[in-house]
Amino acid sequence: MSQAVSEIVRLGPPRELERVETAASLLDEATPEETLRWAFDWFQESVTIATGFGAEGVALIDMAARINPQVDVFFLDTEFLFPETYELRRRLEDRYGIEIRVFKTDITAEQQELRFGAKLWSTNPDLCCRLRKLEPLKDALQGRRAWITAIRQDQTLERSNARVIEWDYQWRLVKINPLVRWNKRQVWEYIARNNVPYNPLHDRGYPSIGCTHCTRPVREGEDERAGRWSGREKKECGLHAPARPAAFASLTEMAQAQTSNLKTLDRRTNDVNERSSDANNEGLVVWLTGLSGAGKTTLARSLSARLKAAGLRVETLDGDEVRENLSRGLGFSQEDRDTNIRRIGFVARLLARNRVVVLGAAISPYQRSRDDVRRSIEGDGVRFLEVFVRCPIDTLIQRDVKGLYARALAGEVKHFTGISDPYEEPLSPDITVDSSVETVDESTARILSHVLNIRTLHDDATRVEFSAAS
What we know:
Number of helices: 17
Distance between the termini: 22 Å
Strand order of the largest sheet: 3-2-1-4-6-5
Largest sheet: 6 strands, mixed
Radius of gyration: 24 Å
Structural class: alpha/beta
Shape: globular
CATH class of the largest domain: Alpha Beta
CATH superfamily of the largest domain: P-loop containing nucleotide triphosphate hydrolases
Number of domains: 2
């Protein structure tokens, strides 16, 4: 077996993923109560319930409190919720004798308006959700091994593939969805049967309730979530990413590939150098985004070395180098940043459609510009892999290899991302690595497993796919 393939095979499925897969199979037909009992027994105090106080949420709280009177429940207070929602929280706490913990952003509504302009929920709803929901959720899930949600498969297309038990790639813990196979009728039958308190807005035409600015009553014949972000394609706030990345194969599929195709894969990998111009040697763009100093360039170099060793054609587009050579003269306004990212994306697209693996390493702070690059590249039939290189701002300030954070905090550097300019974390990245807790080799291995999962190796008579999960 070649060294390259030996390293790849060593990336086999983590035990946590194996446990999740086993639990998902065992609980696939379980009742919500059985699923909750399993969750409380297995995770003890390291599991928590997230609620938005919808019909599903209150039904879930009722079930959980009956099984575990000390159940931990939290909600995300955007400070834009309906008065009826806040009142429902009080009623539930009184009914079940629990405290529903609150998590909220440190940014007040006034500060948000000063920094991002008026009515951010209208001008950039994704950013508003990120600031007021996704950031607080990180704190709520800190130190937890699992979280329980009230989502149903039939609510949205994005949720249709959710399972009772699954690995949450976005938040990197186990996600438990006891009501995932229920429908709306079953939820309301449970509420009526058990006299569960619910939001009176449901009786006024609000089947799905979020923030006041982004929720309206639905009209007759409309989908139950048509009142959320009405008039926009947006249907999710970003809390619930797809159950697994599109490139992820099941653990069973991966094990079969490792067992039955290992020799063929080894032989084909040894032949890559000789046949790198084959039509099946498709290009790919790996886009690394994150704050300055998070480790994007370091990871790109590590990935480049590993992929080149496997015989692939690789080019790295570093944000700083592109600025120096293609974008000299651009400043750091949002418009100039977007222009720089579009240029990197354009070059990446040209290279990738000529069968090059392109590693883009750029801060690329705005979600919209990253989405534009993805659409442009995927429009050419080229695969795009977004990698969020996460690192807490406090850690970056301590590292401060270039001394830029100290200068930015002192006001000497203007428009510095993360300090005086915003960074919009990816809503649903294909991969998230954390340079504050992972070594370069560990992060490289995780990204490499996804790259290999996307690329395919072909034999004259046998098509072999190797899939590795992270």
